[in-house]
Amino acid sequence: MKAAVMRGTQQLVIEDVPTPEPGPNQVLVKIKYSGICGSDVHRFQYGMMNSGSVMGHEYIGEVVQTGASVTLLKEGDRVVSGGGTPPPDAPVSRLRNDRYSARTVGLGAITVGGFAEYITMDEWRPLPIPDSVSYELAVLAEPASIAVHAVRRSSFRIGDTTVVMGAGPIGLLVMQVLNAGGAESVIVSEPAPGRAAAAKVLGASLVMDPREEDVVARVLELSGGLGVPLAFDAAAAKPTLQQGLEMVRRGGQVLVVSMAWEQVDLLTVEWIGREVEMKASYGSEPIDWLTTLNLMERGQLSEKSMVTSESFIGFDDMQSSMERLMKPEESVQIVLVP
Ligand SMILES: [Zn+2]
Fold this sequence. Notes:
Blueprint: E1 2-6, E2 12-16, E3 26-35, H1 38-45, E4 58-66, E5 78-83, E6 118-122, E7 126-128, H2 135-138, H3 141-153, E8 161-165, H4 169-180, E9 185-189, H5 193-201, E10 206-208, H6 215-222, E11 228-233, H7 240-247, E12 248-256, E13 277-280, H8 286-297, E14 312-313, H9 318-325, E15 335-336
Parallel strand pairs: 8-9, 8-11, 9-10, 11-12, 12-13, 14-15
Antiparallel strand pairs: 1-2, 3-4, 3-6, 3-15, 4-5, 5-7
């Protein structure tokens, strides 16, 4: 089968590799779509992956072969790339390491991921896609589970006015989850016009351009001078964390769901006196995947303006797309069709 193999920093090579064989408790999945994540771009950009490894963790596809002992899935099932509950005897996740760093560990241990034609998975790992959910929406299940996890970890309460900084895939999905959860309104801050337009289509009450206006002043004005109870940093741009901490009200919270690979600016004196809270969110749990698939089935998450005809690329465009994604980007989601 074909796969996009890392062969050095910023170097992806399309190679023929052996098609994996499912073990007795595994299924073989033919990959339909495989989303490119910002974290894949970072690993490409900063040389985080071992030579010979295949990235890609946002894939969906169809079960085409099952191991002899498989009972949970059958051939023809449409599945997402994760979300299942590990059995009690599954190996302990390395994320439980107390000194885990997404920069130095990341997904570096993965040898075969979703930038390939086929993948094997333990049968408990993938979840079936509900019949009414299209592949185009389902390919957002993994990033949507990250968004659900972030909102569940946050101090969000129904009726809150919230701000989301950054309208990339995660920011747009956080915004949709907040609206599904009963936000009074979601204000979005995003400089790229294409992404700002997507935020409007998908339900932002207001989209601010941080290059054109003082977003902290605007949020204070909109909230009667007090600030909002909750802001999400889904951008990891140099000023966004400080902006978030300044725009929340006394005791408010900034939920950080983006990963900055370069230093960001903080001036504590501006917000320490209001005893604001900063909280991190990383990855997702099985409950977040189930919630995501429920929201998709109920029509409360949409791929509109995120996954479009311009999103889809073939193996031949992988290298150039990764290079393009290293710079500020107009398109929202790029999807490999292996
Ligand atoms: Zn991801």
